[in-house]
Amino acid sequence: MLYDHRTYCCRPGTIKKHLALYGEHGFDVQRRHLGEPVVYGAVETGDVNSYVHIWCYADAADRAAKRAALAADPEWQAYLKISADAGYLVSQVNQLLGPVPFFTPKG
Q1: Average pLDDT, stretch 68-76?
Q2: Which pTM value belongs to this model?
């Protein structure tokens, strides 16, 4: 099991606009390739201009194949252009996580 934990930070005052843009143009195509996210949420303490999403994969090869298919999808490419043109995002941090030996993930 491999978890892809992603944190995105938006320019102050733009997170709602960015999430609306993603909801309209990006979420469905991303789920079509990656499946349902484990978590998708806005940060309520700390950097409140951020949101986090976590995707689950069987392993690194599964993640690579699904992300390659997503990257090749013209609908996703169109979303990335719309998002870049909007300019709401200022940073992104990705962390790949694996469960520790004593933890059995729900799935």
Answers
A1: 98
A2: 0.88
